[in-house]
């Protein structure tokens, strides 16, 4: 695994931990289909949560949340539809798209921000 892949994996591990701390249950990680990949699929009560994880080193790029553009949100909705088609359809609580932003400072603990319902 290269450095970028290791950084992304670390961010996804932190995100999964944050989601669990918030009461969500991680159902699947790194689900792939021909159209792309969902970083984390979780359940929040009777709702399904498709979660995009964006990890950045502080100062290198824009804030991780800025990377989730309208186009990316549309792609996440399409990926959610594919996941639902493979897993029996929508749950009673519907589907929500969340983003977890992980910002890694040069020193100190990572900052993890969970934003619900971005798309």
TrEMBL record:
**Entries under InterPro entries matching the protein:** Restrct_endonuc-II-like (IPR011335), tRNA_endonuc-like_dom_sf (IPR011856), UPF0102_YraN-like (IPR003509)
- Top-rank taxon: Bacteria
Recorded hits in CDD domains, A to Z, give: PoNe_Nuclease
Q: Which Pfam families match?
A: UPF0102
Q: Kindly indicate where the leader peptide sits in this chain.
A: none
List, in alphabetical order, the Gene Ontology terms for molecular function in this entry. nucleic acid binding
Return the similarity comment.
Belongs to the UPF0102 family.
Entries under NCBIfam families matching the protein: PRK12497.1-3 (NF009150), PRK12497.3-3 (NF009154), YraN family protein (TIGR00252)
Kindly provide the name given to this protein in its UniProt entry. Answer: UPF0102 protein FCI23_10375
The major lineage groups are: Bacteria, Bacillati, Actinomycetota, Actinomycetes, Kitasatosporales
């Amino acid at each position: 695994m290269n450095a970028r892949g290791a950084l992304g994996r670390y961010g996804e591990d932190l995100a999964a931990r944050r989601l669990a701390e918030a009461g969500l249950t991680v159902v699947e990680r790194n689900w792939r289909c021909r159209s792309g990949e969902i970083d984390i699929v979780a359940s929040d009560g009777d709702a399904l949560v498709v979660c995009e994880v964006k990890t950045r080193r502080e100062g290198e790029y824009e804030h991780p949340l800025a990377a989730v553009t309208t186009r990316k949100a549309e792609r996440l909705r399409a990926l959610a539809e594919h996941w639902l088609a493979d897993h029996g359809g929508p749950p009673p609580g519907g589907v929500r798209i969340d983003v977890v932003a992980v910002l890694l400072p040069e020193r100190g603990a990572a900052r993890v921000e969970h934003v619900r319902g971005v798309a």
